[in-house]
C-alpha cells in the first residue's frame, strides 16, 4: 500500500481471506492472515495491507457492538472457538517522516482522504483489550449431535455480534468445518427451512455438502429473510439413500455463513456489473418431487436404510 493506511469510522470489519495472504500492519503491530484464518479490525484502527499476488475474500462489517465469543451455556468452560486461540499482534513501530502519508477514512459510507507527514505506526507499546486479532479456523472445536436430529447451525458459531434483543444477532460468523456425522434416524444435511435471519454463505475451499455443484470457492449464496432454501436435489437423493453409518463430512472443505437479523442489500456491482449472478440458481431445487403420502407408515428400519 506504500505510505497509505485506512481506518473505518463506521464499524468493525471481520475479514475472511479466501485466496492469497494478507500482510496487515496495524497501529498495534503486524499480523499475517491467510485463507482458513480470519481477523477482526475494529472501528477506528488504522491499518495497511500488503498482498502477495492475487487476493480475494469476504468482509463482514458491523455498525454497532463488537464481535464476541458466543456464550457457551450448558457446554460449560471450553468448546467451539476457545479464547486461547485468538492471537493479537505485538507492538511494532516505525519512526518515519514522509512528504505525504495518506490516511483514507470510511465515514458514513463515504471515503475521505487526509495527509500527514509521518507514519501512523508510531506506537511503541500498548496495553488494553481493544485490539485487532486473528483466529485459525482449524482450532474450532466442533460440537454436534451424537444421537439424532440436525442441530441448529448456531452450534458452529465462531463469533457473534449481539443486537439489543437477547438471542438475536446483528451478525453471527458460523463455519461448517470437517467433522464426523453420526446422527441416527435423521436426514443429515441441512433441513429445508425458512429463517427470520439473512444467510450469506461463502466457501473458502472444498465443496459444501448441501450444494456440491455451482457453489465455487470464492462464490457466495444469499438466502434472504424468510426465503425458503435447503439442499439441492442431488444432495437430497444421496442423503435419502445413504446408510447412516458414522461418516466424515466436509473433508477438505471450509464453508461459512454470515447470518444477520438485518436484511442485506445486493449492490448493482454484485447483481449486474460483476456478471457473476447465477440466474439459474433456483433450478437446483426443481427436481425435488412431492413425496407426501399420508398412507405411508414409516418403520425405524426404513429410516435407517437397512
Ligand atoms: O442454509 C444453509 O445451508 C446453512 C444451514 C446449515 C445447516 O446445517 C442448518 C441450517 C442452515 O441454514
Ligand atoms: Fe439456511
Automatic annotation (TrEMBL):
Gene3D superfamilies: Jelly Rolls (2.60.120.10). NCBIfam families: hmgA. Belongs to the homogentisate dioxygenase family. Residues 1-137 form the Homogentisate 1,2-dioxygenase N-terminal domain. Its EC number is 1.13.11.5. It comes from the Eukaryota. Transmembrane segments: none annotated. Its cofactor is Fe cation. Pfam families: HgmA_C (PF04209), HgmA_N (PF20510). This is Homogentisate 1,2-dioxygenase. InterPro entries: HgmA_C (IPR046451), HgmA_N (IPR046452), Homogentis_dOase (IPR005708), RmlC-like_jellyroll (IPR014710), RmlC_Cupin_sf (IPR011051). SUPFAM superfamilies: RmlC-like cupins. It is an enzyme of class 1 (oxidoreductase). Residues 138-292 form the Homogentisate 1,2-dioxygenase C-terminal domain. It comes from Limulus polyphemus (Atlantic horseshoe crab). Pathway: Amino-acid degradation; L-phenylalanine degradation; acetoacetate and fumarate from L-phenylalanine: step 4/6. Keywords: Dioxygenase, Iron, Metal-binding, Oxidoreductase.
